[in-house]
Amino acid sequence: MSPVGPPPADGDADAHWLRRTVELSRLCPASDTAFSVGAVVVAADGAVLGEGYSRRDDPHDHAEEVALREVDTADPRLVGATLYSSLEPCSARASRPLACTGLILTTPVPRVVFAWREPALFVDCDGAERLAAAGRTVVERPDLAAGVREANAHLMV
Length: 157
Prior knowledge:
Layout: H1 13-25, E1 38-42, E2 48-53, H2 63-69, E3 82-87, H3 100-105, E4 111-116, H4 127-133, E5 137-140, H5 146-151
């Protein structure tokens, strides 16, 4: 059975799930060329459909990619799910055909919540804008970004 937490629309559930993404980001193997990111896909009832972190299975893995890979694409709960990511989903990358924003847009996931807008350290990211332009609800919670910045302090020197 999948772990269960608060349903995404319930009170401070976004903070609960973003804290989980920060925990996951701390599991990332170190990298000087990529952010440490965690991601969780949560059904409307609070069931975890998938979760992951950057570089979990492959040095080029992004957190959202890993979390979505764990989800059964035929699962009807995706239409009401929320994807939580500690960092804004990327909109450009060299290591895969689709950036995380593009991967999310191949799913019916209607809502994306993240804590920290991607700094222009490696690429100019406009993932939040692309998701919103495609009709997805995008919620930024900068009040929860401190843990994400801490997990990536090695890059911000």
